[in-house]
Amino acid sequence: MYHIEYAALNYYHSPISDECLCIGVLFNNITTGQCDFKYISNFRRFHSFDDEADINFVKLYLRGIQEETENYKQKFDLASYVKVYANEFRFSSIRTLAVNENENYVEDLSKIYLKYDLAKSQRLNGNEEKKLIRRVLESNNLEYSTQKVDGPYSDEISFDYQVKDLCIKMFSFKGKNLKRVIGNARQWSFVADELGAQKKVLFIYDSDYEDTSNLNIIIKILSKNAKVMKLDDGMDYILKQCS
């Protein structure tokens, strides 16, 4: 069994902006000392995100991180390394994970964070993303349940995971007609409202849609009575709230 830690490198429009694009993932295998840095190759999407950025500079910048980290001669300290990145380039918080020795964790996790570099057929599906959440919980020694939650009318509600008093539901919008999902979102928002006195609710979503009014409508509906976050931010929230 290997113990690894990793952090996503995000690019922001400006130092004060909350809008960002994941452009790389830095891995540190604590057990073996191996470092890997994977970054985007599809710079068309990056240019769409920020058409004023110097693409050649960004490519050199990312290549420099890769060469520096993968050829590090001393014991690598991920926490110290990511601390110096700020402004437009910022690393996420560090996550830990236990993986099997024959597991290609670099490729699997890169499919989560750098998914837009892949054809849709190569990206992880909703069930695989749910498994990632479970593994993050297990690696951080967080007890969770997949049992149904008792509703206010002696009914049962099926969340994906429950950690302490936090109920987690994963939404995957890939390949779906979002107009048809709006009704389902209203139902779950109603559920979150009913449980509000006894449970906290977190909706985590992932989507291949980039700029769609229907996705924004769904997020607004779900946000009325619960936290709504993308997969990456949602895992951070779970660890902070439940650790």
List keywords for this structure.
243 residues; alpha+beta; four-stranded mixed sheet; 24% strand; globular
Poorly predicted residue ranges: none
Q: What sort of overall outline do the alpha carbons produce when their principal axes are compared? A: globular
Whole-angstrom Rg? 19 Å
Sheet-strand content, in percent, reads: 15-25%
The major sheet is characterized as: 5 strands, antiparallel
Give a structural overview.
- The protein is an alpha+beta fold and 243 residues long.
- 38% of the residues lie in helices and 24% in strands.
- It has eight helices and eleven strands.
- The protein has helices spanning 43-49, 55-70, 78-83, 105-113, 126-139, 178-195, 213-223, 231-242, and strands at residues 2-12, 20-29, 35-39, 89-91, 95-99, 149-150, 156-157, 161-163, 166-172, 200-206, 227-230.
- The strands form three sheets. Strands 1, 2, 3, 4 and 5 form a five-stranded antiparallel sheet that branches. Strands 8-9-10-11 form a four-stranded mixed sheet, with helices on both faces.
- A hairpin with a 5-residue loop joins strand 2 (20-29) and strand 3.
- Helix 5 packs parallel to helix 8 (231-242) and helix 6 (178-195) runs parallel beside helix 7.
- The radius of gyration is 19 Å and the shape is globular.
- The relative contact order is 0.12.
- The model has no long low-confidence stretch (mean pLDDT 87).
